[in-house]
Design goal:
The complex is a heterodimer of chains A (550) and B (346). Chain A is mostly helical and 550 residues long. Chain A has 23 helices and two strands. Chain A has one domain: MetI-like (MetI-like fold, Orthogonal Bundle), CATH 1.10.3720. Chain B has helices at 42-50, 96-100, 109-123, 138-150, 168-185, 196-202, 220-225, 230-235; strands at residues 4-13, 16-26, 31-35, 57-62, 65-69, 72-73, 81-84, 156-160, 188-193, 205-210, 213-218, 240-246, 252-254, 257-259, 262-263, 272-277, 282-284, 290-299, 303-309, 315-321, 331-336, 340-345. The chains are: A mainly alpha (550), B alpha+beta (346).
Chain lengths: 550, 346
């Protein structure tokens, strides 16, 4: 009956010396999940190692100058914009009191449900030269040449800021609320005015949160494909897409992707660092709010109202109007197909990711060695990697594998020319890699609530290994797994580049439909699929609202 | 044969030695206790006995079978050991009955239900069977955890600071209750605590631990009255050290006169001594020949604990009934009544 357990031996060895095992049983289990992200990354980055001078010359001459300039503009503009918008809104709703504050506190999170590309075509449709706003201005004033052009770098930045400010808003709010009033009160007893206290105490204390929010917004901007495509504003993502589908030059796509990955990994590293610096201090600080007086409170109300109108209310209204207009002719039988395929893809991805997240969490919990932990971190790196990059990185090795398999099959007398390529498998692999972190986060958070002692109690009662997963982990992780399913479902529904680039022929989803209609400038006909996506996206946002506004 | 036997146990985390050369024996049916300040390694010993920590050296044997030795460890689930955790570690998704039945998966459904009912009756939680952990008070959670650990009839029950999350009044009552439950069930148990009142209320044998070693393993009475070294003498109970000399006839002389009583420590040849004077050894006596000045006093309800200072500057503690109410600075007459002479050479 007595036996030597591997984990016991492993622990013995790692305690016995300072030597850390590079490989362990746990890391062996986690490895396949990590490879899902690591292989595409390695494939893309390895294109650096096989430089193709003629491709580089072409890229450097015709593509890179615009792409680099635009990307830099985007990063700077969006970075500053989300801070300038997110921080004041967070401060107003977290610390101050003004008419409508309770409503805006949660309503300002609603734009999270609106994919940037949907907001983009609505804004273009509304504010373009032929759009209703400029037309009305011309009719009333006779001339509207002063009106800023929406199809401009400023327009892209404006759109992305409206779509992405909630990241900074959410984190900044969390920071201001967790700081508590004590620090501010202490500053005021030391002779600072409220205004000085904000600049010299509250803002510096919130720095790690603000940095985290900005990094998330920037990662989204770099990964964004739909918005920049609508604005015809070339960045890495659109350049990768064009290299592949317009020039049929996969190596060029991979070269571009490798550059983008470097940018993004830098951001991911900065984000992880800012997360480490976030510590909650100052307990019980939910004291009296700063009550705004006079015209200031109306300014606060106006600011919150304007942002909510521009980022959510007006766009949704416009979507509904457009839908009503084209409903009769547009909502035909094909829509059943779009919706069904979207639901199926989102559902499958959600199930796969939830299962993978559960396994990942279970293994990292069961095997606590450093090798397992590191591989676990690498496995969730996919959230930082833009969809266009993953699409390229998954497609290349699959195509290679396919060629080998097809060759083997033909040698055995088969006739097929494609096995994996052009099937759902490629798309599901890329989507799983992309959203594993999204699903892992809530499951991991639920796992954190299972204490070491509860696990030890189960073990001492004879429950181990797989029984532990079924009888302790699964029941206690139920809530986390449900959130993971919902979040990944909605993210997949919104997802555009991976679906677009890796879908089987004719496999159109709602997001693909949006892309196709918007790329032809038919805003009204993109409204119906967009409204479906926005409505589905509201679900997790409402849950988030309930969690944060207890 | 001892049910639990630990011999020369060493546990290290990396280079940090947590337990070194620790030995103890616990007879079947006995309740043992490891007593020590936090960080002395007592919880590590418990986790090593449970099988959660490996032994780098030495052995742990259960009922004559070696379960831990260097490089070999029988996993916890095969040891038939029950454990009650400091935070109880109840499973929040299961009600009390399901928690208690968690370790009974090999039994039939009927057998399990009967066993759960029996356990709940034993700890007095019968009416709470359908409640969930968060609906219970701290004391009830503690009993539920105890019932869960006892349900599979473990050979040995381990309790890690079982009362530290409870109110002070509840603690002593529950310690006595738990002792009664364990004695009823005939369970052998090993307990870990930093609170000597708990240790004395629960245990048949107590081991005082310091830096990973047991200094003394004996009955609570002997720990208090026959400590083997200065550390144990100071750690258990209160008292002040008084200088003394032994003359050729073996009489112990102090500045408060000669002392008699059972000499319980070290060799009789020593001449220069430190004698531990417990607070209950110092009696306030109007007619006492010695006087001392009150330096401080602490009201403890039924008693006062006075800190006294002798003309020589030597301090003493005195525990007296609280109707002896003296002011700070007052001169009082005192007398020593020492039954057990705790003395170590200077």
């Amino acid at each position: 009956m007595t036996r030597i357990t591997p984990s016991g031996v492993m622990r013995f060895f790692s305690f016995a010396g300072s030597m850390k095992p590079l490989f362990s049983r746990g890391s062996l289990y986690v490895l396949p999940l990590a490879l899902l992200t690591l292989i595409p990354l390695a494939v893309v980055l390895s294109s650096f190692l096989q430089p193709q001078p003629e491709i580089w010359r072409h890229l450097a001459q015709y593509v890179l100058p615009d792409v680099l300039r635009n990307t830099l503009l985007l990063v700077l503009g969006v970075g500053c914009g989300v801070l300038l918008l997110g921080v004041p809104l967070a401060w107003l709703t977290a610390v101050c009191e003004f008419p409508g504050r309770r409503f805006f506190a949660w309503a300002l999170m609603l734009p999270l449900a609106m994919p940037a590309y949907v907001l983009a075509f609505i804004l273009v449709g509304l504010l373009d030269y032929t759009g209703p706003v400029q037309t009305l201005l011309r009719e009333q004033l006779g001339y509207a040449g002063w009106f800023p052009k929406i199809r401009s770098p400023g327009g892209v930045v404006f759109t992305l800021v409206l779509a992405l400010y909630p990241y900074v808003y959410l984190l900044a709010r969390e920071a201001f609320r967790s700081q508590g009033k004590r620090a501010l009160e202490a500053a005021q007893t030391l002779g600072l005015t409220r205004w000085q206290a904000f600049w010299r105490v509250a803002l510096p204390m919130a720095r790690p949160w603000l940095a985290g929010g900005v990094m998330l917004a920037l990662m989204e901007s770099l990964a964004d494909f739909g918005t920049v495509a609508i604005f015809n504003f070339d960045t890495f993502t659109t350049a990768i897409y064009k290299a592949w589908f317009a020039l049929f030059n996969l190596p060029a796509a991979a070269q571009l992707a490798s550059l983008l990955v470097l940018f993004v990994l830098l951001l991911a590293w900065l984000e992880a660092r800012s997360r480490g610096a976030r510590r909650f201090n100052g307990k019980g600080g939910q004291g009296a709010r700063i009550v705004l007086q006079g015209w200031v409170r109306w300014c606060a109300l106006a600011l919150c109202g304007a942002v909510l109108l521009a980022a959510f209310a007006v766009p949704v209204l416009q979507l509904v109007l457009w839908c009503a207009k084209v409903w009769a002719e547009d909502a035909d039988r094909r829509y059943a197909g779009f919706i069904l395929r979207s639901l199926m893809l989102a559902g499958l991805t959600a199930l796969i990711v939830a299962a993978a997240a559960l396994l990942l969490t279970h293994f990292t919990q069961r095997f606590r060695d450093s090798a397992t932990r590191w591989l676990g971190r690498l496995a969730t790196l996919g959230y930082a990697v833009p969809g266009t990059v993953l699409a390229v990185g998954v497609f290349i090795p699959i195509a290679w594998l396919d060629n080998g398999l097809v060759f083997l099959l033909q040698a055995l007398g088969g006739t097929s020319t494609e096995l994996l390529k052009g099937t759902l498998v490629v798309m599901l692999l890329a989507l799983t890699a992309r959203f594993l972190a999204v699903g892992h986060q809530p499951v991991e958070a639920a796992m954190q609530r299972i204490t070491r002692n509860q696990e030890d109690a189960a073990r001492s009662l004879g429950v181990t290994g797989r029984a532990l997963l079924w009888r302790l982990h699964l029941p206690m992780l139920r809530g986390g797994v449900l959130s993971a399913l919902l979040l990944v479902f909605v993210e997949t529904l919104k997802e555009m580049p991976i679906t677009l680039m890796t879908r089987p022929f004719g496999w159109d989803t709602l997001a693909v439909r949006v892309f196709e209609m918007t790329s032809e400038g038919m805003w009204e006909r993109a409204a119906l699929p967009s409204l479906c996506i926005v409505l589905a996206g509201l679900l997790p946002v409402l849950i988030l609202v309930r969690q944060t506004e207890k | 044969m001892a049910l639990l036997e630990i011999d020369q146990l060493n546990v290290r985390y990396g280079d940090h030695v947590v337990v070194s050369d620790l030995a103890l024996q616990l007879e079947s049916g006995e309740i043992g206790c490891l007593l020590g300040a936090s960080g002395c390694g007592k919880t590590t010993v418990l986790r090593a006995v449970a099988g959660f920590e490996p032994a780098q050296h030495g052995t742990i044997s259960l009922a004559g079978r070696v379960v831990s030795e260097a490089g070999r460890i029988v996993p916890p689930e095969q040891r038939h050991i029950g454990m009650v955790f400091q935070d109880y570690a109840l499973f929040p998704h299961l009600d009390v009955a399901a928690n208690v039945g968690f370790g009974l998966s090999t039994m039939t459904k009927a057998g399990r239900a009967a066993r759960v009912a029996e356990m709940l009756a034993l700890v007095g939680l019968g009416p709470m069977a359908q409640r969930f952990p968060h609906e219970l008070s701290g004391g009830q959670q503690q009993r539920a955890a105890l019932a869960r650990a006892l349900a599979p009839e473990p050979k040995l029950l381990l309790l890690d600071e079982p009362f530290s999350n409870l109110d002070a009044e509840l603690r002593e009552k529950l310690a006595q209750d738990v002792r009664a439950i364990l004695k009823t069930a005939g369970t052998t148990a090993l307990l870990v605590t930093h609170d000597q009142h708990e240790a004395f209320a629960m245990a048949d044998r107590v081991g005082v631990m310091q830096s990973g070693q047991i200094r003394q393993w004996s009955t609570p009475y002997d720990l208090y009255h026959r400590p083997v070294d200065r550390f144990v003498a100071s750690f258990v109970g209160e008292g002040e050290w008084l200088r003394a000399e032994v003359d050729t006839a073996g009489v112990v002389l102090t500045e408060l006169g000669t002392l008699s009583g059972i000499r319980c420590t070290e060799d009789p040849e020593m001449r220069q001594l430190d004698v531990l004077i417990r607070p209950d050894d110092v009696v306030l006596d109007e007619a006492g020949q010695q006087t001392a000045r009150v330096l401080a006093k602490a009201f403890r309800g039924a008693e006062f604990l006075y800190t006294l200072i002798l003309p020589s500057g030597q301090q003493l503690l005195s525990l007296v009934a609280s109707h002896h109410n003296h002011q700070i600075g007052e001169e009082v007459g005192i007398r020593l009544e020492v039954d057990h002479l705790i003395a170590f050479s200077r």
